[in-house]
Design brief:
Blueprint lengths: L2 H20 L11 E7 L14 H19 L20 E7 L4 E8 L6 E3 L29 E2 L5 H4 L4 E3 L5 E5 L7 E13 L14 E12 L8 E4 L7 H8 L5 E5 L9 E5 L11 E4 L14 E9 L2 E3 L6 E5 L6 E3 L1 H14 L4 E2 L9 E3 L11 H4 L3 E5 L4 E4 L1 H4 E5 L2 E4 L1 E3 L8 E2 L1 H4 L2 E6 L4 E6 L16
Parallel strand pairs: 3-10, 4-9, 16-25, 17-24
Antiparallel strand pairs: 1-2, 1-12, 2-3, 2-8, 4-10, 5-8, 6-7, 7-8, 8-9, 11-12, 11-26, 13-27, 14-15, 14-16, 14-20, 18-19, 19-23, 20-21, 22-23, 26-27
Length: 471
């Protein structure tokens, strides 16, 4: 029997066994898909939530993080011919819960479309002393010695060979070192473990007692005992072989596809991360564009890159004079970064069309800001009458419309700024960031090599009782 078929059949047996042992009345049917909750790092549900920050201060903090993340997306040293650096582990935006091992250890990890490796902090029996521990219902680290399904991966395995920076230790296990700009090196052992996901389309699940689960045995992941002020782990959702998407696709009949629907920062609601058939983007107005291969010398092959042919504002169309632009679709970068030859005329056009008083940017972080102090909370949507839509024309004829909420953010009381910045030597990669993706259902299909966008009400995509954000 082929290895993939065996793993898929084994998975069905594991899911059924889980349902029987825990007394669950339902389980995830392989092929039907499942959903998990995406928690923004500033949500009251997040261990990184700072209740002292205002809503505007949280947006400004996301802008600052965006600068660091955009720099890490590019080649090492900012050179277009340089080697690719791994993403800095500190700038991140969304968290998801994973259950690891047997018995289950619940952990909050970063959901990251910009990386491949799944890795966790491992305690090796000792307690973690992270500067930002997770909430009380999640572990600060995973203890491999407590799990009956934990194993190590040999250094001659295909998984080890596909992991950059890997080598053999004295026992022929696969070891690796992750190097991050402005962060400690993070050594670890490539390991294997059972990952269990709570299927929570309606929210409120707490493990097997309350909701169906998907159990994926034999997931290759990095186990690192280093203790740093970063989250307890990363779930890589990139396009590489070691990403969670690829491993779920190899172990099940769900395929290598996922989607998310990001609720606006201003709405007190979680977002949804969908797998399998639930990742289908079927809302009215859905458009699909092909993923483009990314030269390995310029950017990581795990990134999701599309072609940006032009930008339209009203009847004005802006294009690069000599080529189209490759842009990375990334949920972990807040701002959208565009080639300066595109962005500069866009700023001029928006300035001409928006009849508001210009303001200086807080901390000189953004290109274009306006005084909206005269717009009261009840009249907030009146901004739609003065802020024009921005249309992205992607490869294959896909047209994505950015509404005012996708292009402008309020970073201080009464100060609204364009949530876009130019590509520079320090931020060398064009990116469609998560401000631009709010209230869009975005679906990735690695087998078809496509991304699909559709407008959606993302606040209702994960209909659990929202935790209120501090104002």
């Amino acid at each position: 029997m082929a290895g993939t078929e065996y793993r898929a059949l084994f998975l069905v047996g594991v899911v059924l066994l889980t349902a029987q042992l825990c007394g669950c009345t339902a389980y995830v049917v392989v092929g039907s898909g499942f959903s998990v909750e995406l928690i923004h790092r500033d949500s009251a549900k997040s261990p990184f939530h700072d209740p002292s920050l205002t809503a505007h201060a949280r947006v400004l903090a996301a802008v600052r993080r965006s600068k660091a993340r955009a720099a890490a997306l590019g080649p090492a040293g900012g050179s277009p011919d340089g080697a690719v650096s791994e993403l800095v582990p500190r700038p991140f935006e969304y968290l998801m819960a994973v259950n690891v091992g047997t018995p289950l250890t619940r952990m909050l990890a970063v959901a990251d479309t910009g990386s491949d490796l799944v890795w966790l902090k491992c305690s090796n029996g000792s307690s973690s002393t992270a500067d930002h521990p997770p909430s009380s219902d999640a572990a600060a680290a995973f203890d491999p010695s407590s799990s009956s399904t934990y194993g190590l991966v040999g250094c001659q395995s295909g998984a080890c060979h596909s992991l950059p920076g890997s080598s053999c230790d004295a026992r022929s296990n696969c070891k690796y070192v992750r190097s991050y700009p402005d962060a400690p090196q993070m050594p670890g052992l490539l390991s294997t473990e059972t990952f269990t996901f709570d299927d929570a389309p309606g929210g409120g699940c707490a493990g097997c007692r309350d909701c169906p689960q998907l159990v994926v045995p034999g997931v290759d992941f990095g186990c690192s005992s280093i203790d740093t002020a970063v989250p307890t782990g990363f779930v890589g959702l990139g396009a590489g072989n070691l990403s969670m998407i690829s491993q779920i696709g190899a172990a099940t009949s769900l395929g290598r596809r996922f989607s998310y629907c990001l609720a606006p920062y201003s709405v007190n609601a979680s977002s949804a991360l969908n797998f399998g058939s639930r990742a289908a983007v079927t809302e009215p107005g859905a458009v699909t564009t092909q993923l483009r291969p990314t030269p390995s010398a310029a950017a990581s092959s795990s990134f999701y890159t599309v072609e940006l042919e032009s930008v339209k504002i009203g009847n004005s169309t802006f294009t690069l004079p000599y080529r189209s632009s490759n842009v990375v679709v990334d949920s972990g970068t807040a701002l959208t970064y565009l080639d300066k030859l595109l962005l500069d005329p866009m700023v001029e056009e928006l300035t001409r069309r928006i009849n508001l008083t210009r303001m200086p940017s807080p901390e000189a972080l953004l290109e274009l800001c306006f005084d909206v102090g005269g717009v009261t909370q009840d009249q907030e949507w009146a901004l739609e009458k003065v802020v024009p839509d921005v249309t992205l024309e992607l490869g294959g004829g896909a047209v994505v419309t950015l509404r005012p909420e996708n292009t402008f953010v309020e970073v201080e009381e009464g100060v609204m700024c364009l949530a876009m910045a130019p590509v520079t030597q320090e931020q060398p990669v064009a990116v469609i960031g998560n401000f631009a993706q709010q209230n869009m259902h975005v679906g990735y299909d690695l087998d078809k090599r496509t991304i699909t966008f559709a407008p959606a009400d993302c606040a209702s995509s994960y209909p659990s009782p929202p935790a209120s954000l501090a104002s």
